[in-house]
Amino acid sequence: MTTLEIDKRGDGVAVLKLNGPETLNALDEGIKKDLLAALTDIDSDDDVRVVLLTGVGRAFCAGGDVRQMAAVPAVETVARVTLGNQVIEKIVSLQKVVVAGVNGLASGAGFNLALAADIVLADRSAWFQQSFMQIGLAPDMGGTYLLTQQLGWQRAKVALLTGHRFTVEEGHALGFVAEIVDGDFFDEALRYCEVLARRPPLALSATKTLVNNAAAAMLSTALRSEATTQAVLSITKDHRRAVDAFQTKQDLRSVEFQGD
Fold it and tell me: Which superfamily does CATH assign the domain made up of 3-183 to?
């Protein structure tokens, strides 16, 4: 189970830490609700100007909790996906700058959580992967839109269809990682946020809004489509085959998918 650590530091920076190292900070329903509540509270807090979102342990976020996803009845899939999508919409619309401090792997929905941030800082050990195909699902939490915005159609489709694993150097070269951090990652990321927090707060908020406004409507449409598509795919036998392979650590290449 992943919990959320919240630290409003009093220097204009709020730190949100995903704390579930035993599951690589996987996103279950509880942590999604906690994230949404924390972000909503921060949005109305004039003392916070910058949010640092990071993880505890060797991962930023491994994506959705596959075991919990498998236990959710198919009729509840839209609600499950919609909750995660609301977190993404809140990050994008937040009147504060959000910095993702990617301290390790960012996979599936965890990758998309980072992409939704305004700035991505990454540790030298970080890597990124769109892993939905490995469990027989299409992306959620804005992956289809956010990745296409960052990489263009061709590269985004390759990443989504093949599950290509991006090194941090690739991420920086492609533009979805703003800076690679060497040394003490958390301290360096915090210093970066402290510098940002000393900028004029109204100008910070207005600049983020201006950049994001044009894309907001398209993101909303993509999120609704993702929720519907995941609901359809979640009841397929191929999804069950993929989840069974994941849970038993079977090589996905040995699974015979039937298209049913």
Answer: 2-enoyl-CoA Hydratase; Chain A, domain 1 (3.90.226.10)
